[in-house]
Amino acid sequence: MFFIQFNRIGVFLFLILISCTAYGQSYQSFKSTLEQIRERAKFKVGPFRILPTLQFKEIGYDTNVYYQHEDNDPVSDFTITFSPQVQVYLLFRDYLIFSFAENPEYVYYFEQKRERRWNNTLSPEFKFLFLDRFVLSGKYVHSDRRRRASSEFDVRANEIVDSASGRLFYETARKTSFGFFGFSRKINYEDTTLPGEEIPLSRNLNRREKGGNIEFYYKIFAESYFFVTAGYTDYEFEHTQSSWRDSYSYQVYTGIRFPLLGKIRGTLSLGYKKLVPKEADRTGFSGVVGNTGLNFRLWRFGFSLSYQRDCHFSYWTNNIFFNEDRYGLGVSYYLTRFLRVDYGLSHARANYPESESLRMPDGSYEEILRKDIYRNHSIGLAFRIIENTGLGITVNFWERESNYYWGNRKRIFIGGYITYEF
Length: 422
Description:
With 422 residues, this protein is mainly beta. It has a single domain (2-419), classed as Beta Barrel (Porin). The protein has helices at residues 2-24, 30-40, 201-205; strands at 43-45, 48-62, 77-92, 96-109, 117-130, 134-147, 157-171, 177-189, 192-194, 197-199, 207-221, 224-237, 247-257, 264-277, 285-298, 301-313, 321-336, 339-351, 356-359, 365-368, 371-386, 389-402, 409-419. The strands form three sheets. It has an 18-stranded antiparallel β-barrel. A two-stranded antiparallel ribbon has the order 9-10.
């Protein structure tokens, strides 16, 4: 009951924030932005429109808080995250939008005091429509959070990101748009520790990223868009000891962005990326990349599909990056109008391009190309309460299987939730 009461508010508001995030990941026309604000931000204080939200998330029991190997006596604990957010908008006629978002959150662990922390993200933004077709926009984001930045992170780490970006787009009457997006981002980490081990994240991962994209969006169905983006990113690492990680990349993506409401929702996106280290003798990456997530309904079944492929910077000594393929499938079946069974499966494979000298269980050292396999199974039941609102409980089984013995991990998380898409 403790889980359920908090999640009644939490997951619904989480869905709202997911929609905000989805829009933030790709371009949205000025007219669509204006319509969305007027529809969703109902509270008014003087000239300001306000959209407050409140989440209680990650409520449950974690059997392996630090993703430790079973030989190291994994630590378990109960956890809850309190996460309010407020978005404030100021509309000046039909051609200027100012907005500000603030999202403080408190992560609480009942016994692991080192994991308790205030996180915060704030973001001011403006959009200016001129000559009835051109849109100039700018955005700043400051994020100070403790999280796992990639699947390589066993322990949450403090990450501070300062990002500034700008766009100049041309929009047609049919909401087709094209233009340029540029950004500069500074990413800092604080070193973290495990029993008997210190992980120098700041030395290995602190960096500045700068780049730009050319983007094109064409409306093909009602609120569905075909898109093409092509861009360049430069990665410059802060510490002299990590300058050998300096790289640049070219990437192009294309696909279809479906509306948030409809029979098919989400984004179908595939592309190509080439990551080139600035030191000539270092191994780079080139190949297909993807960032796809789709949801749809068919009779009594609900389906979700996902595919992510990309390379991620590694804090391991001799590897600039690791590349990861991740596939996901979710199936829901409505046994009755009031009872739904859910099952989800995620499978991922991470490969490191350069060999490492690693300690084996017998104390010897061996040169290996590390390869990790991730599996996640989730099983749950949801009960309809009223209309599309339902309460549920889910159990997640996560494991990492590696050819590096000490990389093997297992974890179970049990929690309650509420859904507004029953």
